[in-house]
Design goal:
- By secondary structure, the protein is of the alpha+beta class.
- It has 2 domains: 50 residues, 2-Layer Sandwich (Dna Ligase, domain 1), CATH 3.30.1490; 125 residues, Pleckstrin-homology domain (PH domain)/Phosphotyrosine-binding domain (PTB) (PH-domain like), CATH 2.30.29.30.
- Helix content is 24%, strand content 39%.
- It has 4 helices and 13 strands.
- The strands form 3 sheets. The protein has a 7-stranded antiparallel β-sheet with strand order 8-7-6-5-11-10-9. Strands 2-1-3-4 form a 4-stranded antiparallel β-sheet.
- It starts with a strand and ends with a helix.
């Protein structure tokens, strides 16, 4: 099926059109904010947050459809910002993921690179092991492990502060982070964990430039 397209309002001008995946990617990269205005093919206006949130509303589980008991409490569109510390093996999900709150776990599902291709995967974070949760705007900072031990830190982007706050409040075992312990996000590490690669690459680039200058002086 053909994907609907949306124009983005920037500085009073319409830019685009873009499909939903492109807009979500721009939101993840912070090229757009959740408050940016979109215009659909019918001329209707909506925000980036409205567009992203449609996935959660359309995927809500209705127990009456099957006559069974739903283990899904809520579903949120999100993206994985970073993971730091030892603990669960969490794939390096790229782009939009689905954060599904179940009775016993927070299930995160999405796409990640494997070799030269892409693979769909998921990981379940047991609710009993999520002992810390705090929000910074639309980001949710989770701490997994046991009190008194080094925690594995998982950062999710929920796209709106309300969604981040709501999900944090639904985690039964999670206590707020101490004010001086709210973790920094954006760290990448080998094996699916996350470190601060950008500063490292910046330093490496400076070293390369300095060496190139020194070598050119020696040649002359």
């Amino acid at each position: 099926m053909e994907q609907p397209l949306f124009h983005v309002m920037l500085g009073g001008r319409k830019v685009g059109p873009y499909d939903r995946r492109t807009i979500v990617g721009m939101r993840i990269k912070e090229t757009l904010t959740s408050d940016h205005v979109l215009i659909d093919s019918d001329g209707q206006q909506l925000s980036v947050a409205d567009l992203i949130g449609r996935a959660a509303r359309s995927n809500e589980f209705n127990p009456s459809r099957t006559g069974g008991f739903s283990i899904v409490q809520a579903t949120y569109p999100a993206s994985l910002v970073g993971v730091a510390g030892r603990g669960m093996e969490i794939p390096r999900f790229k782009g939009e993921v689905e954060a599904r709150l179940q009775n016993d776990a927070l299930r995160v599902a999405g796409r990640f690179r494997q070799g030269f291709g892409w693979k769909e995967g998921r990981v379940k974070l047991p609710l009993g092991e999520i002992i810390r949760a705090g929000t910074r705007g639309s980001r949710l900072e989770l701490g997994l492990g046991r009190e008194g031990q080094a925690l594995q830190r998982v950062t999710l982007e929920l796209f709106t502060p309300d969604a981040a706050t709501e999900l944090a409040s639904r985690l039964p075992s999670a206590q707020p982070w101490p004010e001086d312990a709210l973790p920094a996000a954006g760290r990448v590490r080998a094996g699916g964990h996350y470190l601060m690669w950008v500063p490292v690459l910046g330093v490496a680039a400076v070293v390369v430039v300095v060496l190139a200058v020194l070598m050119s002086r020696r040649m002359y």
